[in-house]
Design brief:
By secondary structure, this protein is of the alpha+beta class. The chain has 4 helices and 5 strands; from the N terminus they run H-H-E-E-E-H-E-E-H. A 5-stranded antiparallel sheet has the order 1-2-3-5-4, sandwiched between helices. Helix 2 crosses helix 4.
Length: about 180
Amino acid sequence: MRKPALSAAALVIAFAAMTACGSGSDQKNDQPKNTTTATAGVPTKPAARELTASDAFKVISGKVASAKLSGVVTEDDDPNHLLGRPNQYTSKVTFTDSRIKVDEVAGAEPGSVGLGGAIEVFTTAADAQARADYIQNVTKGMPMLSEYDFVSGTVLIRVSHYLTPAQAADYKAAAAALG
């Protein structure tokens, strides 16, 4: 009865040793390779490149011509101090919308959602939805801070309340193109 237990334990140790040997990265070419695993014989797919806020903006601006990139947020200039923090966005961009009259926007500072919007990308769809829910709850009683929020997978598109509902719907339709 002890031999099968020992054999199973030996198999687990051998498998662990085999997988540990291949865990280093190739400094010259860190691109995923389409290889076959030794244990299952099933081809592995290359890892998909993570979507960034800049990638999402390219899609959005291709559908909403009035959107123009105004900034890429970094850890050093993130006004919310959320970039890269646990359960928060991993990338963020801000944009303007030429249909908004800048002189009518209260507190029109560069990067303000009021001037157009922002795109925030999260690790999970649940984190993106949680951020949208939080923003909606906080701004519910403050019409001057309200905004349109559209979640598409891991992407949150925040759009200025200075746009009409019909204009904001352009962003909602563009969000659907993110898949």
